[in-house]
Amino acid sequence: MEYLTLGRTGLNVSVAGLGCGGASRLGQGYGESHAHSVGIVKAAMDLGINFIDTAAVYGTEPIVGEAVAGRREDIVISTKLPIVPPGASALGQDLISGEDLAVSLEKSLTRLGSDYVDILHLHGVVPAQYEYCLRELVPVLQRFRDQGKIRFLGLTERFIYDPQHAMLNRALEDDVWDVVMTGFNLINQSARQRVFIPAGEKSVGALIMFAVRRALSNPEALQAMLGELVNEGLVDPNAFAADDPLGFLRTLGGAETVVDGAYRFCRHEARTGVVLTGTGSADHLRENVASITSPALAPDCVIRLEQLFGAIDSVSCN
Ligand SMILES: NC(=O)c1ccc[n+]([C@@H]2O[C@H](COP(=O)([O-])OP(=O)(O)OC[C@H]3O[C@@H](n4cnc5c(N)ncnc54)[C@H](OP(=O)(O)O)[C@@H]3O)[C@@H](O)[C@H]2O)c1
Questions:
Q1: In a domain, 130, yes or no
Q2: Is residue 308 part of a domain?
């Protein structure tokens, strides 16, 4: 495993982070047992991963808490609290109060079996919700930090609805956040300009999600997404082979598979921190850690990816 310093937090974190959400939720998303999922977290730690990302809404905080028991001080736990009440629209203006946020944090601490979290994020904020968060919820987060219940303040975007990073781009004007989590992958590279550069200017740590999502782990979904981009005139259909559109990741880039190429592309992006990988499969976990710790794709391949997709900011690859 390789480690890096996560921006202004000074935390020494593994370049691969375990994501306990996504569709898999450590296997809980497709019916694996609690013990299986605890085993995935332990396998990740055995591979040298010390950065674990979960959230109140994933249902995986108790799994993380159980897996890290006895090793808590060696692990960086990143968790997230929802900003909308249960049942309310994730994109709406019905937002929780500071008191609700405090209650929610106490519940997360109980589920994690810990008296602190390392990074506490507001979860999935959309542009129209940001000013409220800044005004009403950030003071509460700062109070938690003063009380020692959280170490650093984090913010995550809702990439599927905000693939152009309008929320994080606005948030990075404020000198409030220690860490941000953004969507970035070899198709939508727009976080480079809109998140990584402004975050780097303030030494804000950047976490990458969506490195591999459905379209980059499922050939049919990839074909469908590229077909839409071609129809919209956003990519040139003659620029890649119809039956194996990202085959050049192997032939030109030196990747083993699309998934391998996708993780390596993210890992070697400048100014970034942890690349998150979520899975319920111990085999996938091992493969993905091997990819994230592999050398960069060949420079010609990276240039080709920028030429082909560098202007795309309308899809998340979900
Ligand atoms: N707004 C937010 O705050 C937000 C949103 C999304 C995600 N996140 C966080 O970021 C983490 C990463 O999320 P993500 O969106 O990048 O998705 P992800 O959770 O990493 O999911 C990747 C998907 O690809 C599959 N996969 C993994 N390795 C594979 C391999 N080697 N070959 C084929 N398929 C593979 C997994 O299924 P298998 O189980 O079959 O491996 C999984 O369904 C999440 O777990 C979560 O912690 C945060």
A1: yes
A2: no
Q: Which residues are catalytic?
A: 58
Distance CA 38, CA 302 (A): 36
CATH of residue 190: 3.20.20.100
Nearest CA to 85 out of 109, 50, 56 is that of 56
Q: For residue 32, which amino acid is it?
A: E
> For 219, how many CA atoms within 13 A lie in the half-sphere containing its CB?
7
What tokens does 65 get? 């808490």
Residue 41 Cα to chain centre, angstroms? 17
Q: Whose CA is nearest to atom 33 of ligand 1?
A: 217
Indicate whether 117 belongs to any domain: yes
What is the pTM for the complete model shown? 0.96
Domain of 279 in residue numbering reads as 3-213+265-294
What's at 73, amino acid-wise? Answer: E
Contact 17, 275 (CB under 8 A): yes
CB 157 within 8 A of CB 124: yes
> Is 290 domain-assigned?
yes
Cβ 261 under 6 angstroms from ligand 1:
no
What is the count of structural domains for the chain? 1
156 lines ligand 1 (CB under 6 A): yes
pLDDT, tens digit (0-9, with 9 covering 90-100), for 100-155: 999 999 999 999 999 999 999 999 999 999 999 999 999 999 999 999 999 999 99
